[in-house]
Amino acid sequence: MQPPLLMVPQQNAPEAIAPAPAYYAPAPAQATVELGDLGRILLRRRFLILLTVALLTAVTLVYTMLTPALYSSTAQIIIDPQDLQVVTNDVNPSRISPDGGITQVESQVSVAQSNGVLLRAIAATDLTHNPEFNGQGVLDRWLGMVFGSDDGDRTAETLDALRRRLAVKRDDKVLVLNIIVTAKSADLAAKLANAIAQAYLDDQAAARSKAAADASDAISARLEDQRKRVEQAANAVETYKAEHNMVMAAGNLVSDQELTDLNTQLTAAQTRTAQLKAQVDQLRRQGSAPDATSEAMRSPVIASLRAQEATLVDQISQFGTALGPRHPSMISAQQQLSDLRKLISRELGRLVAAAETDYERALANQKELEAKMASLKGKSLDTDQASVKLRELQRDLDAVRTVYANYLQRAQETREQTNVNSTNARIISQAMPALKKSWPPKGLLVFGAIFGGLALGIGMALIAEYLSPTVLSANQMQSAIEAPVLGVLPGRGRRRSGAAAQKTDAVAGLALQRIAAATRRPHDWPLVPSILVASPADDKAQRSRVAWQLANAAAARGRRVLFIDINAGKGQKDPQPGVLDVLRGEYPLEAVSRYAPGSSVALVGRGRPTAVFQEAQALYFAHRMLAEANHSFELVVVDGGALADDLNVLPLVAMADEILLVARLNATPMRDVASTSEAVSVMGRLPTGAVLVDEAA
């Protein structure tokens, strides 16, 4: 029997054999999720997803059964940005925007939903007395019957309710407005849609009529001012003409007209005088032969006398031949010819005298006109100076009269436009009562609830996984503990076939080979190779199975194996001596080890935790225990339990060659893996590998 722990000599203390290991900070647990892990996450949390889908679908079905049916009706209005051209000078000029009027029609969407249009429709349909829109439900009516009815104005509530039930949309690439109204009654929905469409047209007509009336009123208000300005300008012109003695006739000054007329007369007189002077000069130049002048040639008297003279000359010629020169007829004819020639001479002299008289008279008239012209020119110089100011006043008067006339004409035009509707819009489709309800669409809502529930459930599953991540893959485990994953064992949740058992043995054997290949220890190392298996507390069954599988796999390959179960006998009233007794130095290893029935693996239980041992002494006896085991065994497998909950395993952790962590795929929380890895680090070691158990495999 070994001496008590207090009697161990100090020179054999464990610190002389193995110094206390340094503390290694654990690597933070990684919650990295790979794309291939999403399927496992969703499969593991499938009940949460299905529950979410079921709840959302059930709520949707209840909603569709309890929600009153709604019906939608649509009225269509076509709006042409080019208004009707009723008059030339329209108060509302029609201009089409560069985009073809789309912007103008788009703005009418807001007009159709404006308070003015909706209030017209409410008044036309008496909607304020409809309980569906006036905000008075069944409870309100009952309370009104009990405490007195509230007959106040419900227009605001009705307007708000109608706006919520109204949708005005413009079809793409067309100038058509769709007025959509939803109500519990199909007839009411159609009636309201038509009422709003008609109210829109009436509102547009009223707006244009009001614009024309406002313009007419504004112009009419300016007419009186313009009329007064015309009177002032006219009075200024008349006053100025009176002050300067300026008489107008036919729009011109009388003095100007007199001067013009006198100038015309003077020109004619000068022309007449020049003609008469030329005639007199010609007569004077002819001298003794005035009958050669043009006046003598044109005189009928001279022409008649010349004809008589020619006749007498012819008679005298005949008488001279027939009768002789002394015949009385000859003498009488000669006497007549002489008298006739005297008459011609006197007539020619009279023509000369008449020409001179006419010339003198014309010259006198010319001089008189020239004198008058000189007098009027003197007066005209003074009048011209005054006419400059008069013409300025006259132009001002003409301008004011033109503005007044335009104002008067525009006032008449705008006054007439108040009765003309130039809006180029009309209802092209009257709303008809709907044959099918528009809400709630049961099939669509259920379909959406199913897919929405799936999306919500998947999101909740991913959020739950993010808040509490689990071990999803070997790579994630390897990143978390910074050690390789030696294999993935199938679980024992279902009955296994022979092939599954062979796979389990193969994985365990492969793990042993990888451990042996990675172990670097001298050939003359006095301690037996050892593997300590640890896990979180919730993975106790998987840890025990993995540890026992490793031991059996080594034994199946002909190796002598010692299996130390730190949990065997834990909690019993009278446990058998075990590893704790060996670590206290109370028992040798041979005294506490035994072979399991039908197995080639030696077993060592937990032992009796009757006394607390010191860490340094426990390390010494652990070293000695492994040295003793080296004589009888080739491998020691230790089921270390949950290291975070049992510090008695510290000596075994410090002496173990390999420390394997066991976790369940899709089940073990990453925080438990981190706490276990941290416990190993606190004990002065780092995990050297991990084995995963897939319960779903």
TrEMBL record:
Residues 385-463 form the Tyrosine-protein kinase G-rich domain. InterPro entries: Bact_polysacc_biosynth/exp (IPR050445), GNVR (IPR032807), LPS_length_determ_N (IPR003856), P-loop_NTPase (IPR027417). The keyword Coiled coil applies. Residues 32-123 form the Polysaccharide chain length determinant N-terminal domain. The chain crosses the membrane at residues 47-66, 444-467. The keyword Transmembrane applies. Its main location: membrane. Pfam families: GNVR, Wzz. Keywords: Cell membrane, Coiled coil, Membrane, Transmembrane, Transmembrane helix. It is found in: Cell membrane. It is a multi-pass membrane protein. Residues 223-286, 352-410 form a coiled coil. PANTHER family: FERRIC ENTEROBACTIN TRANSPORT PROTEIN FEPE, TYROSINE-PROTEIN KINASE. This is Wzz/FepE/Etk N-terminal domain-containing protein. It comes from Mesorhizobium argentiipisi.
